[in-house]
Write a structure and sequence with these properties.
With about 210 residues, the protein is mainly alpha-helical. It has nine helices and two strands; from the N terminus they run H-H-H-H-H-H-H-H-E-E-H. Strands 1-2 form a two-stranded antiparallel sheet. The longest helix is centred in the first third of the chain and has 33 residues.
């Protein structure tokens, strides 16, 4: 049987990437970096955090199909096959495209249900609160990268929904501000840190 994807290594690599980019910002703050530089670094780090999550989600799906494809094989009516190779799993998840695309956590969960079944869907381990933070991170990423009116509207919507912020500041200002809410994932720390905590938790749970 072909070698299966090492899920432990996948998780470890993704978690290390997150630690590295967060430490980079923290070190710059500790060294007395200029505020405008720290703001820019925070915005770019939020983009990187979301990129790590997107890549992890794709490869976690590939690994899930590679480890257990019973639901997919049954749903597709495939005969004489009991295993899906990592290459084929990647092709299935990407749909023949260059990368796997999902618009939100609900979209990710729905697509995973279709391939894996609800019972074997690892992304169902996340609760709605954690999922809402990841969707908020995606909106920050899009506001930074695209800056379109649609991206800004979505960004404002998620800041209001998740943080109760009715008048959204710029992403750079938002990420650097400390989150003092009682229910914060990293109380009294910059909101960027809170996002890193949630994404790391999601990787560990999924």
């Amino acid at each position: 049987m072909a070698k299966k994807i090492d899920l432990k290594k996948l998780k470890s690599r993704s978690l290390n990437e997150i630690d590295t980019c967060i430490i980079r910002v923290q070190d710059s703050v500790a060294a007395g970096g200029h505020y405008t530089l720290i703001r820019w670094m925070s915005a770019m780090t939020a983009v990187q955090l979301h990129s790590v999550w997107e890549r992890y989600a794709e490869w976690r799906l590939v690994a899930a199909l590679n480890h257990n494809a019973k639901h997919f094989i049954a749903e597709e009516g495939i005969v004489g096959v009991s295993h899906v190779s990592s290459g084929l799993a990647s092709f299935i998840v990407r749909g023949g495209n260059r990368y796997f695309d999902f618009r939100s956590m609900s979209d990710l969960i729905a697509k995973s249900d279709r391939w894996l079944g609800r019972a074997e869907n690892p992304f169902r381990n996340l609760d709605k609160v954690d999922s809402s933070y990841i969707d908020a991170l995606a909106s920050v990423r899009n506001a930074v990268v695209h800056g379109s009116d649609a991206a800004k509207r979505t960004y404002c919507y998620h800041l209001n929904k998740v943080y109760g912020i009715k008048f959204a500041p710029t992403p750079e200002e938002f990420l650097n501000a400390k989150d003092n809410r009682a229910g914060s994932p990293s109380r009294y720390q910059p909101r960027l840190t809170g996002f890193s905590v949630v994404v790391k938790k999601a990787i560990q749970l999924c």
